[in-house]
């Protein structure tokens, strides 16, 4: 068992202060909307992870290699080029939702959205809720 500290750790920075400092206005408004939705879905108080990721909840992971650590259940980062949502469960199980989401790109567990106007927020909320439920069930197993 090898516990390796991730470079990105929770910090004491205020999420509200961070979000208030974002620009332009659309980026700030989108980040606030995602923050409110994730807070509602997770019932968790958001925490800053590093200097630019807002994370909700906490989970412990362990890979087959033996590496393990702690991470958030779900989170987001308002980047300059797009809004990145961290869906830690990945997307494999959610193909029907992904088809209904709207304009987006994905990585292994990252969802890239240019602006919230491009997607269906109800579908995004369902995706976040399913991912959080999956991660909680996995941790309990």
| Portion in strands | 15-25%
CATH class: Alpha Beta
CATH overall fold name:
Aspartate Aminotransferase, domain 1
Give the averaged pLDDT, no decimals.
92
Please give the count of helices: 4
Summed up, the domain count is 1
Topology, number of strands: 9
- Secondary-structure element sequence? EHHEEEEEEHEEH
Principal-axis shape equals globular
CATH 2nd-level architecture: Alpha-Beta Complex
Give me the side-by-side strand order of the main sheet: 2-3-6-7-9-8
How many angstroms does the end-to-end distance come to?
18 Å
Roughly how many Å is the radius of gyration?
15 Å
Helical content, roughly? 25-40%
Low-confidence stretches: none
Task: Quickly give the structural class.
Answer: alpha+beta
Protein model, in words:
With 141 residues, the protein is of the alpha+beta class. It has one domain: Aspartate Aminotransferase, domain 1, CATH 3.90.1150. It contains four helices and nine strands; from the N terminus they run E-H-H-E-E-E-E-E-E-H-E-E-H. The strands form two sheets. It has a six-stranded antiparallel β-sheet with strand order 2-3-6-7-9-8, covered by helices on one side. The protein is globular and about 45 Å long.
